[in-house]
From TrEMBL:
CDD domains: F-box_AtFBL13-like. Pfam families: F-box (PF00646), FBD (PF08387), LRR_At5g56370 (PF24758). It comes from the Eukaryota. Residues 12-52 form the F-box domain. Residues 355-428 form the FBD domain. This is F-box domain-containing protein. It comes from Gossypium davidsonii.
Length: 428
């Protein structure tokens, strides 16, 4: 006898069912219309609409036109519910190929009219009306390398998260845009640039997270000014520029990675770049946790102040030196990664021991490609001078090291003298 399976899902209210459908790909959500008469029109009331380029893959011209009409009806249907999220992505800018007239700007406007809270766009022609939407809370915009001119009546009064990708801002458009986002908390520039402007001015009392990941060697002729008194996280990952930072007293964590293409610049005097790097680091001197990745040519060891608030410090790209440890007297955790030539950093050591080693440093983590005599020299120095060290973790990233080699190095490390009797050595 065939068993009768109860359809409990269909007993949910339309509101709950529409919420469930919002998390399905648009194709799957539409297919539910054939389940029963109850499901026939539920998909038109979903609150999350995402269109990706793969929706058009393999479609005939006739089917593409049907798809266009479907999207027009889905977004512009009267008496629609408000939208939580609207996404146009993955090649959307190539949909208008001359044969098919997709009303992309109309779709965006329709989403804005429905009070959309989150928008994620990847397209070349950005409609200016996008920057006047009061309902937007989260905006991710990839302009595919095209220029963006922000209108004079820009107002994004409820915007809290703003990610800008591969965009070129003309004149002072970006400064006007930021100054009109009054509750902005999370701002990121990713592979962006500025045309016809001498300054990028980021002034915001509401900003809590800021990421600048956007400069290339041909776009460094302007100053970056940052005034964000409530900023708690700052990431800088690009070429060195003149960066003026103020009111960073709330900063808790920062990641600074500097690119420097010496072949491109063809110079021997690095003093100007050292100065710019020093200004950048000095601007975040109140931070508690810092990750640094610098080329050795411009690392400004001799130009740095004392960082009294540092609790955790991570070095990358082989720049750690005993001299810098003198700048962080209260350091509790030190992480060293990618030290290809670690031994050169610890030869000819100065007589004075950094105070963080003597009184505060409790944990050291070393991630290194090769555990060799140079690395052992460094570890020996740290163990010999870290008076209150509780844990030393050593991670070898070289997967080709044999078990016998690992055992030999392990024995060498475990035989090193330790000033801290309670220090635990972990080798991975």
């Amino acid at each position: 006898m065939a068993m009768c399976v109860e359809d409990r899902i269909s007993n949910f209210s339309d509101h709950v069912l529409c919420h469930i459908l919002s998390f399905l790909p648009i194709k799957e959500a539409v297919r539910t219309s054939i389940i029963s008469t109850k499901w026939r029109n539920l998909f038109v009331s979903i609150s999350i609409i995402k269109f990706d380029g793969d929706l058009l893959f393999g479609l005939t011209d006739r089917n593409i036109d049907s798809f266009k009409n479907f999207v027009d009806g889905l977004l512009k249907f009267p008496d629609q519910v408000s939208l939580d999220c609207f996404r146009l992505h993955d090649g959307i800018s190539s949909w208008n190929d001359g044969d098919h007239d997709f009303d992309v700007s109309g779709w965006i406007c329709a989403a804005l009219c429905r009070g959309v809270k989150e928008i994620d766009l990847k397209l070349q022609d950005v409609p200016p009306v996008l920057f006047t939407c009061h309902s937007l809370v989260n905006l991710t915009l990839d302009a595919v390398g095209s220029k963006i001119e922000v209108p004079s009546d820009v107002c994004l009064g409820n915007l809290k998260t703003f990610y800008l990708i591969n965009s070129v801002f003309v004149s002072d458009s970006i400064n006007r845009l930021i100054s009109n986002c009054h509750v902005l908390e999370d701002l990121a520039f990713i592979e962006c640039s500025i045309a016809n402007a001498s300054e990028l001015n980021i002034q915001s009392s509401s900003l809590k997270e800021l990421a600048l990941l956007y400069f290339d060697p041909t776009d460094i002729d302007h100053v970056v000014v940052i005034n964000a008194p409530n900023l708690v996280y700052f990431q800088y990952d690009c070429d060195i520029v003149v960066c003026l930072l103020s009111n960073m007293k709330s900063l808790e964590k920062a990641e600074v990675y500097i690119w420097f293409f010496s072949d491109y610049y063809e110079i021997q005097d690095y003093s100007d770049y050292e100065t710019s790097a020093a200004h950048l680091i000095q601007g975040i001197c109140n931070v508690r946790s810092l990750t640094l990745g610098f080329p050795k040519e411009i690392f400004p060891t001799s130009r740095l102040p004392i960082f009294y608030n540092f609790n955790e410090l991570e070095f990358r790209e082989d720049i750690c030196s005993v001299e810098f440890l003198h700048c962080v007297p209260n350091l509790k955790k030190l992480i060293l990664k990618y030290l290809n030539y670690a031994g050169t950093q610890w030869k000819g050591l100065c007589i004075e021991i950094p105070s963080c080693l003597s009184f505060h440093l409790k944990e050291i983590e070393i991630e290194i490609p090769c555990i060799d005599t140079h690395m052992i020299e460094m570890v020996s120095y740290l163990l010999d001078n870290a008076m209150v060290l509780e844990r030393l973790i050593i991670i070898s990233t070289n997967r080709l090291t044999t078990t016998t080699e690992k055992r030999k190095v392990r024995n060498q490390l475990l035989q090193l003298l330790k000033s801290s009797k309670k220090c635990l050595i972990v080798i991975l």
